[in-house]
Structures are given as C-alpha cells and as structure tokens.
Amino acid sequence: MTPITEVEGRRLALSNLEKVIHPATGTTKAELLHYYASTADAMLPHISDRPVSFLRYPDGPDGQMFFTKNPPPGTPSWVRTAPVPRSDDKNARQVVVADLPSLVWAANLVVEFHTPQWTQDAPAVADRMVFDLDPGAPATVEECCTVALWLRERLSEDGFEAYVKTSGSKGLHVLVPVRPTPSEEVSAYAKSLAVEAEASLPRLALYRMARNLRPGKVFVDHSQNAAAKTTAAPYTLRARAEPTVSAPVTWEEVEARQELTFRMGDIAARLERYGDLLAPLTDPGQARPLP
C-alpha cells in the first residue's frame, strides 16, 4: 500500500520508500525525500521561479535514465506549470517547483533538477550566467579550480561577482548574477571569456567542444547560457552510484584545490556552517549589466 503523507496541506502518495536508489551507499528513496525536505529552504529560492527539466532515474543510476521537460503523467493539479514554447510544441508547458509540496512530489519521481538561466516570467532573458568547467581525464577538479579562479578574476575586471558550486559530477559551475539580458547576448559574452581563458591558459583551458582536444584539459562550457539549455540546479542530487550533490563551495575551498566532492549527508552541516553560499544569485541587487 502506497503511504499517503501531508505536506503543507497537500496530500502526497509516496511510493517505494525502501527502494535503494544509490547502490554504493545503500541510500534509499526515503532518505532522498528527507534530504530534499530538509534542504528546501536553501534550494527553493534557486528553482521556484524557473521551469524545471527532470533527469529521471527511478531505478538508480544503473537503470534507465531519461530527460523530460514536459510535466510527467499524473502531475497534480496544484503543481504549477508555466508556458515554455518550443519549436516542436508552441503550447508546451513545464513544471515550476514553487513550494515544498511540489519539491517533495518531484523528488518522489527520483530526478535531477535542471533549470535554465532565466525565469518563467522572462523566457530567454537571462538573469544569471554560468560556466560549466568539465575536466577531460587525466585532468581533475584540481585543474577546474585553476580555471575557476582565472574566471573569477576576469569577471571581476568587468564588475561581476562570481560564485561557485560543484557540478555533483566531475567539475565545477561558476555562476554570475547579471542584470536581465537576452540570452543570446549573455551567451556571446560568456563565449568571449571562454575564448580568453583558452588563450590565457593554453595548456589547461579549452573553449571548443571537440572530443579529441579534451584529454588533460578543462572544457569551459559556455553553451549552457543558450535559452534552450539547462544546468543542474544548486543542491540537486546527481544520478551517480553515490548520492553526490551539486553543492555550493567557498572560494577558499577552491583556492585550496580540495577534492570538492560532497554527498547528501554533508549538506546539512555545510548549511549550518555557511548558510546558502549562492544566496546572492537570488538578490536582484547583486546583478550587474554586461560590459
């Protein structure tokens, strides 16, 4: 029998709570739901006004995984959706995870949360910029740290304050609040900095996506600023053997070039110690215009 629980007045059917989702640690679905419920105050400000896409992995990272932008079948009527017209569907809508009940409902589907760089009220008008630093073996997150620090200094020259989180996989995400600007303009500026990074760090940074160039270098992926692209949301769990998190980190941790891998069980203590390190991203007063 599927348990029914109530979250802030909404009744939710939570299924297969004892199912192991992350096999390396034996982490169950119930533990995933508890993680999201306890992290909601930090996570929701980053996703509550953006359409979300889901990477679903209901049978764990070794099972079937599929990416979906459409609201899943059975989405409750009280879960908000927003129009997100696409070339293949002018009437398309996507889920907006606006509150705790919606977050728990979505987490029950076993998903990674991905969002665009714009909000539901201003499609294709970015209010943040992202650089996804992806190391090509044998490069590691240590090399990503060097590139992230270069980006931080270069962005500072143009008046931007940068923030950083782990991808929850192998690399880092450098994030910047920007004054609302058409996504194509933010994309062009981000690409120009990625090109500069390769010119300044030719043995380390790479702005081109070609796979044959990747070994031993850090790909500075600027493409996620395009209006149609999304990035793993802050605090989302990733579909990996262990329940790793896309976790905010301090620049001091980046400078120390630490391992920078955080799991579900690490986040409560980090929030207690640091609060939400990415909170400035949600403050319009921190946004700066493109140069």
From TrEMBL:
<protein>
    <submittedName>
        <fullName>Non-homologous end-joining DNA ligase</fullName>
        <ecNumber>6.5.1.1</ecNumber>
    </submittedName>
</protein>
<keyword id="KW-0436">Ligase</keyword>
